[in-house]
Amino acid sequence: MNPLSSPLLSDLYQFTMLQSYLEQDMQETAVFELFIRKLPPGRNFMVAAGLEQVLNFLENLKFSSEELDWLAARFHPSLIDYFEQFHFSGDVHAMPEGTLFFPNEPVLRVTAPLPQAQLIESRLINLFHFGTLIASKAARSVLLAPDKLLVDFGMRRAHGAEAALLAARASYLAGFSGTATVLAGALYGIPLFGTMAHSYIQAHADELTAFAHFAYSSPDNVVLLIDTYDTEAAARKVVTLAPILAADRINIQGVRLDSGDLAAHAFNVRQILDQGGLQSTTIFASGNLDEYKLQTLLSAKAPIDGFGIGTALDISIDAPAFDCVYKLQEYAGKPRRKRSEGKATWPGRKQVYRYYTAEDEMSHDIVALAENDPHEGQPLLEPMMLAGQRIHSKISLHDLRQQTLANYTHLPKVMTTLEATPAYPVTISTALQDLAKQLDAEMVTHL
Amino acid sequence: MNPLSSPLLSDLYQFTMLQSYLEQDMQETAVFELFIRKLPPGRNFMVAAGLEQVLNFLENLKFSSEELDWLAARFHPSLIDYFEQFHFSGDVHAMPEGTLFFPNEPVLRVTAPLPQAQLIESRLINLFHFGTLIASKAARSVLLAPDKLLVDFGMRRAHGAEAALLAARASYLAGFSGTATVLAGALYGIPLFGTMAHSYIQAHADELTAFAHFAYSSPDNVVLLIDTYDTEAAARKVVTLAPILAADRINIQGVRLDSGDLAAHAFNVRQILDQGGLQSTTIFASGNLDEYKLQTLLSAKAPIDGFGIGTALDISIDAPAFDCVYKLQEYAGKPRRKRSEGKATWPGRKQVYRYYTAEDEMSHDIVALAENDPHEGQPLLEPMMLAGQRIHSKISLHDLRQQTLANYTHLPKVMTTLEATPAYPVTISTALQDLAKQLDAEMVTHL
């Protein structure tokens, strides 16, 4: 059983519900929509990511004989028979990856026979939620520092292997320059960056020797870590070493700071490097950075050219989860509405329309019914999979990243900062409001 | 390349450093220790978990031909030759899973040739950090509510597939009753729990029919979700349904509340069920729960028998990362000390000794040198792998869970609450302090 693709990576209730659906022959078409209920504090928008993983999951969903055996000991034979033939044959409409979106906007819609649409819920949320979580976090640093080198350094404290990989992907999609995670480079073609660890310096008898060894071993990537013992002293060693390396045509590309007062050290180190003739040697900073520390360093005009952002990015430290849900909106042609306290949903299959100002800035969105409720704006949900087949060829991650960067240019300027602004206007169409009222009235009658 | 086992799931700098180590023939024995620098706010202790995954990773670490090809395009042939033959041949000493531990205590020690010990850093932290993060979070609920059914409900908002599985494992190890994540049941033998989703109720024409269909389909696991429309009305439907099901020898085991004021609903529902003769039908609650909400519900004496804890558990929402590091402490027989500002480490290979009061309560720990610094206390670090081979047969997850529950009984009572208490006393042995001073003196001379 491969944890990354197994249909058993799901909640138990999906299986017990499916058993009942099949026994009642409840296999008519269901429409589920995925949305995020609210923005975390301090956030103004979200960036859709993870659709590629969702489509890949749906395309390849099947049960192995080992999985069927495990299930057969626990569920009715009719369910096992159903799983033996299982493949996903439904439709998926979604906002393209990199789309900026807001709470309560459906961002992905599944239209499929009820058991299929139900079975996929847990993993679909799991994949879409995490991609969007990280892309939305990464976007904040990208918008603050569009001209800086931003690198994902978060693998070691990401929550497991898949989180590390998908965080590298989502942050690159959102505009990061690359990652330190080698496998993300190998699997997704993301540019890789890396320097050296303190252990490398410590394992050598002295720091200068460590620098020299590294430079001769990786002459095309000489970025030296200078904070192991004394940052400014190490910067002076870099200046001492530079002409020796230059004689061998090796250029010291950069130095890395990883502790202490990064702004103060950067000013000192810049001066030492410049006075030593190393004006083109860049300064790269890391060490528990997030977008708030980035903003402080930028405000101080610290001479730092690039930033490694690790844990805070890969776990989305200020908002490690979004309130992301996948809800039944229609079954057998009839709109459905969940009315649980504080968790009521807008019924029916929906579309989101986006409007822009004359200056091409996003002005507002309207959530409307997908059918018989036309609007002039740009429809954000597009068909992505029909009858279980993708209808687009796969878009390259590089192109998705370019599209995301283009999307940022339409954001109202006030929303590009770290401060929470008044909510972006998202209104509910009259037709959708009427439908909700009608369902509530029917429900009251029914109770 | 399998993301769960690939040696490329690592940081780029591990590879550039290894290339240099091999070129300089720096292959003498290195000792790295893993520790957590500080407790997050409000926490009193941590629970070690993830060692099983670490040992499994080390035992199976090798490079596939595809991985070697990818590396060959980027690194020197000598590094590729080294990787072709690679297997981990070092030693691992560690605290057993389930051990309660504190900041700056080495919890895992790797002794291996420098390139090996370096290469494994990123994934070793990634696995150990996450297991310990979740076990430490889960322990808080277990200590609060030792007699309640506690179930991991977090898969959908866990950070990817591996996080979902390892969160189920770590929370069970820490004393949870089980999980809803099917694959965690299949792979680890963790007890599975599940009810039904709101979509199940909504897909039916009415709630009572949904309840009946579910009961007949899963007669051994009848836990009915009663908050989709009106919780108390649904509880009355449960009472109506019970005798009909009883005629078919089906027992309604429980109901689930998932929204609104859980305590108030629980009191109402308990009364409705009791008056309807359903005294043995339990009440299970879920919906954005964490240990603080659990405490509130327990304080209110809400008649709730079990809790599904989801997102807050699987992402460790109040502390989604620990400051977990893996540092070089000795190379080629010589102790090493990193002195970066605010990040200095205790040098040398170390042992942790634990002391107990006459009442068998933990009193204090001493961090000492592993050799020539004997202490009377219980040594916490044990040999787990020697020369690349495990020295114990695998302990069952069930036994690890029992051991963890036993460990809790030695915690000072004041540390079992959700409030932060004065730090548990961890002292540094005189010999270790002397070694650190000596290294600092040598360093000053050296600079």
From TrEMBL, chains A, B:
Reactions catalysed, as given in the entry: 5-phospho-alpha-D-ribose 1-diphosphate + nicotinate + ATP + H2O = nicotinate beta-D-ribonucleotide + ADP + phosphate + diphosphate
Gene3D superfamilies in UniProt: Aldolase class I, nicotinate phosphoribosyltransferase
EC number: 6.3.4.21
Metabolic or biological pathway: Cofactor biosynthesis; NAD(+) biosynthesis; nicotinate D-ribonucleotide from nicotinate: step 1/1
GO CC annotation, single: cytosol
CDD domains tied to this protein: NAPRTase_A
Keywords noted in UniProt: Glycosyltransferase, Ligase, Phosphoprotein, Pyridine nucleotide biosynthesis, Transferase
GO biological process, one term: NAD+ biosynthetic process via the salvage pathway
Annotated family: Belongs to the NAPRTase family.
Name of this protein: Nicotinate phosphoribosyltransferase
Organism: Nitrosomonas communis
